[in-house]
Amino acid sequence: MLTPGTLAIKPPVRVTTPSDIDGADIEMGLFLPDTSEKVPIMVFATPYLDAEDSIARQQATATNGNPPPTVINPSLSVKSLINNLVPHGYAFVTLSVRGTGGSDGCNDLMGPNETADLDTALTWMGQQPWSTGKIAMIGVSYDGSTPWGAASTGNPHLKTIVPVSGVPDMYGLMYRNGSSESRGPFLLNALYIQGGIDSGEADKSPGRLCPEAVEGLALSGLAGAAGEDPTGYWQARNRKPGVEANYQGSVFSIQGLQDWNVDPSQVVPWVDHLESKGLRTKQLLGQWGHAWPDGLGVDGANIDCNDDNKVLDVCVRADFKEILLHWLDQELKGLTVDTGAPVQVRDDFGRWRNEEHFPPHDATWTTYQLTNGLLSDKPGARASAILYPSISEEFPPNPPPAVDLGVQKAADFVLGPLAEDLLIAGLPKVHITVTPQGPGGYMGAYLYDVDPDGVERRIGWTTMNLAFADGSTTRTEVLPGETIQALMEIQPMDSVVPAGHQLVLRLWVFTDGDRLPTIPPSPVAL
User: Fold this and answer.
1) Residues 6+ apart with CB under 8 A from 278
2) How far apart are CA 523 and CA 521, in angstroms?
């Protein structure tokens, strides 16, 4: 902070409160300022803490002498928040979600039981004698997802949330457009099965295999193979409807536009939609990955962001905690302070700018036609190409015998060289007409900035299972030879293609290490 706080931090205290579901302990760590005044609260709820005396923690400590974090001894990034906020008159509460750390019950991966426990815990905090009853929540990744879950309950104590690369819609992250992430079918739920086995105190029975975890594992595999949600498991983990219907607080959304772990489409343009429904919002959108906006390296120095071939120096916001304090002073204490523009966004050439909305409402849409290898503002003669499935964009197989030589690994469409810089802000749409040659198909659309020497820099991407070609979550059978309109949308971006460079759209039958192909993969006529 620019101005240090004046209050001392009391020693942390571990407390529990019973879940309204089954009486299971909800574990919390309280970090309170040394004051007789009531204070507002910042909450950090996570599955990544250990119980103080868990067997897993004892083993880790014995192995490397570095005990895993707990509710009263959290990670360095959380301690930094505590040390900055508590002296300014805020309580800070760490919380282990159901089935993790010292919290009992079965972890259910951002499901309704976890959400109900968060609601219970917020009510408990809001009623404490040291509390003003006004609460904020913050976190990054899963920890940034719990604020969305709590907001969906409409708990009256929750006045603002600060999700950093949080996930309001698990299905939309893992299986967007029926396009499964490689970690979606098994890895994600397997991690939380292991978390449930490792969690709990040493004197309690470890090694639980909860039915929620088994169900999640099975339905993750199904969604990965077919893109479907037949039981509503994933819909129950979509917090967006609940937030829109119930939440009365504000949102300070923080997202890295180079985040390949939690895609920017999780919150862009949805946060702008929440603002249109009457919620006060702020967005901080930078060219960093899956990290805090003031992400610090191990040595405490600012890290750099690496965007493929170009290093973005000093990409982080060193003033993040100052911005955060102003936001909390406004939202929890009712102070009149400067919280900055509604949107602060950085393009990938390093320039920050202020916007009223993102995507910008005053952006100019330009339509380009796919014409003989060019992106043209005028339609040309119809043409077609057979795109054959490839193992990866870099290493396609040779076309098989007896296939027309028109078969190719990808189709490129080029704009430029450009006469002036081109800023692409928001979510470009790629609408194409394709004819699958088999009972499936899986398209990728990538955007590149290509310099005069032919060096490519990927600036935008999306993928689509053609069974979800209309962009919905409803599967439609793909029939060989039947033409489909594929309504693709590039992930949110804010990128500059400089004058003298080319913008290239690459379309291909997609498979790569991060997304799984349809089974079986099929050639597609574009």
Assistant:
1) none
2) 7
Token pair, residue 257, equals: 């536009």
- Sign, Cα dihedral of 172, 177, 183, 187: positive
**CA 166 to CA 149: how far, in whole Å?**
10
Do the beta carbons of residue 113 and residue 21 sit within 8 Å? yes
- 334 CB-near residues (< 8 Å, 6+ apart): none
- Cα–Cα distance for residue pair 298/76, rounded to 1 Å: 10
Q: How confident is the model at residue 298 (pLDDT cuts 50, 70, 90)?
A: very low
What is the rounded distance in angstroms from the CA atom of residue 127 to the CA atom of residue 136? Answer: 15
**CB neighbour list of residue 379: distance below 8 Å, 6 or more residues apart:** 369, 371
| Interval 120-160: pLDDT, tens | 999 999 999 999 999 999 999 999 999 999 999 999 999 99
Q: How far apart are alpha carbons 425 and 18 in whole angstroms?
A: 47
Determine contact, residues 393/456, Cβ cutoff 8 Å: no
Token match 């409402």: residue? Answer: 361
Q: Which residue has the tokens 């595999």?
A: 221
State pTM to two decimals.
Answer: 0.89
Dump pLDDT digits (tens) for 68-106: 889 999 998 899 999 999 999 999 999 999 988 899 888
